[in-house]
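Page 47, continued from p. 46.
Same chain as before, 346 aa.
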Amino acid sequence: MSELMQVSTRGSLCRHNKAFRLRMGRVISSPFVVCVAGLLALSALLGVHASGFPNRPLTMVIGFNPGGSTDIQAQALADILEEELGQPVERLYLPGAGGGVAAALVASSTDQGYLMMFGSSLPYTFTPLVTDASYDLNSFRYVSALALDQSALVTGGNKPYRTWEEFLEYARAQGKDELTVASQTSQDRFVINMISRREGIPMRIVPTTGGAGMAPMVLAGDVDFAFSGGTHTQYTESGEMVVLMGLVEERLVGYPDAPAIGELGYDVSMQNPRVLVVPEDTPDDQVSILSAALFKATQDPRFIQATGRVRLPITFWDEARLQSYFEQQVDDYRWLIQEYGEPDEN
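Result:
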């Protein structure tokens, strides 16, 4: 069973919880099999909703390990929200299934706006389509989008290719030998599978739990190329990483020479806003308070600087726009899944 199939909280999924820790900036680690019931019990210890939101500490869940591009933004965002909301904002790292394990926790929580999640929209729009997830698109309220992912396929500066065309020439010269690619999400595996089939190049996917896991593999030359949601921006100026192509609709910010995936003839996109979400039953007043604080964060120099470090364009989309955008995305993703089936996994 793949890690993605373990996102579901249906039935008895409480198998491994000995490594669970809930502290400021700590990581929850387990072999992708998380006791969601235990997580919810600890979430409940934070208290029940009372008037005057927020009147106690809040928790921001991050679906990846510390050190990646999501974490860089989340650290700045948590500091700003603490000031705007007048309460501590603890960071809870819960890696697994490309953010799906963290999304399952938030979707099942009864803690309303006191438990929120920040990161890519993929766990909400794509993961439920390819796994037996315990949630779907309507299990959350999408408070605001704050930035747009700048996903890319990247390689190490020590490789003999620096463009996508050079990579394809290299790959074809390897004959039947598999190329290795570091993957972070369910969606990027489908995209990689699509490229593999169209180009006739065998590829072996190496799953990672985020940019912090991907980067060492690329830097050491252990994989031929990799998916990156933004972590590559920390390594491209030094030449340690090279962007082969952008996976979004327009050319990447800061990488005008790297073609967008559509320019290369692949009819798909990974344009995913970075959003802050809360459980579905969060009241309107809490969503409004959080949204106002997030709007201020997009104008705060600390968030601007953190987002600039990972070269993401800052934006602000409200809940109504996000809901409409995601519904259209889900339809597009269904096409990708139907067209290319299950991604090859090894």
